[in-house]
Amino acid sequence: MENMIHSTPSHTFLPDCFVFPPDQVPPATSAVVSLPIIDMSRSRDEVINHGISEQTMQDMVAVGEEFFRLPAGDKLDLYSEDINKATRLFSGTTYETGGERYWRDCLRFAYDFPVGNSTKDWPDKPQRLREVVENFTLLTRGLAMELLRLLCEGMGLPLDYFEGELSGGYVTLDINQYPPCPNPSVTLGLPPHCDKDLMAILLPGQVPGLEVAYKGDWIKVEPVPYAFVINFGQQLEVVTNGMLKSIEHRVMTNSALARTSVAMFIAPTEDCLIGPAEEFLSKENPPCYRALRFRDFKRIYNVVKLGSSVNLRTNLRNIQKEI
Questions:
Q1: Domain named Fe2OG dioxygenase: which ranges (predicted)?
Q2: Are 304 and 315 in contact (CB under 8 A)?
């Protein structure tokens, strides 16, 4: 628990373990981008009119912030550096590789959909945390599945293509806390990466920090009130044989304001074999990715640098020796 960043009221200097060489923290361009907005009231990137109430979104952020304000003793039993533990509190994550540390605290939940048995391991403080998190998780998962059905309709896949094993793994929900940082220019909240799952639904909060890679630059994302940011995961890129790209993104810190974000991830089951769908293959368009079971993909995700779309395409052609 001594590693928790948010537990210290103020930080006057940045420990060396959080400092990166300048080439690993290139500044973003001065441009601020508004992501394309999807208005789901008309179809029923950023999604508005999605059917999840503003109150539900406010409650989710509020209960997360309330948790991080709890006394250290109320959080002690949750703290763990075991990356295989489903529900845990951790800090300065090493991102499962290397020794770098990032300016982020995270409370992570796992939800066994549709059974929900995993909630017994969830913290019981604050009092309404379990109810708020479970409600938010179920609603955002429903939104993700609706978006996947719309993608299927647009791409010519069966509408239920992503039902079952492709989306049947544990739903993971992260409440991220990025405390004020004494020197944001030399550190990161999260490193450049692509999400390894199928899809992520992000409630980014109103304090800027999210940046996306675009044409060799980093672009700051302008928050839109009560809008979700949708991140396509690498499994969606594999299934579509590269038609839909998993966008590389990172999180920067802020010297004056704390930032709270909430991310929900849809993942395949561990045994799910994932490769390009036949609908995207032809003689002129051969498979760009090798089929892998999701557990094997996760195991080698960092070992062979699958964290970006370019490395994903390069390495999944010749990865059998790593399994």
A1: 168-268
A2: yes
Give the helix ranges, DSSP H, for 126-252. 129-155, 234-239
What is the tally of structural domains in the chain?
Answer: 1
Mean pLDDT by groups of 10 residues along the chain of 323 residues: 70 82 86 71 61 94 96 92 89 67 94 78 92 95 95 94 95 96 93 93 94 91 90 95 93 94 97 96 92 91 66 62 43
Distances (CA, A) of 315 to 10, 318, 322: 43, 6, 10
Domain with 153 in it:
21-273
How big is the chain by its Cα radius of gyration, in Å? 19
The answer to the question of residue 290 being in a domain is no
Evaluate whether residue 263 is within a structural domain: yes
Nearest to 131 by CA among 142, 145, 151, 116: 116
CA distance 22 to 183: 13
| Cα atoms found within 13 Å of the Cα of residue 205, Cβ hemisphere only | 21
CATH (domain of 87): 2.60.120.330
What is the spatial distance between Cα 298 and Cα 281, in angstroms, rounded to a whole number? 25
Work out the burial of residue 286: count CB atoms within 10 Å of its CB; fewer than 13 is exposed, 13-18 middle, 19 or more buried.
exposed
Is 179 among the domain residues? yes
Token pair 């009231």 is at which residue?
41
Phi and psi torsions of 53, nearest 5°: -70, 155
Asked if 269 and 294 count as a contact pair (C-beta separation under 8 A), the reply is yes
Say which amino acid occupies 62: A
Instruction: Please give the model's pTM, rounded to 2 decimal places.
Output: 0.89
How far apart, in Å, do the first and last CA atoms of the chain sit?
35
Two tokens, residue 25:
């923290």
Is residue 274 classed exposed, middle or buried when 0-12, 13-18 and 19+ CB atoms within 10 A define those classes? buried
| Alpha helices, DSSP H, located in the chain | 40-43, 54-68, 129-155, 234-239, 294-300, 309-315
User: What's the rounded Cα separation, in Å, for the pair 176 and 245?
Assistant: 24
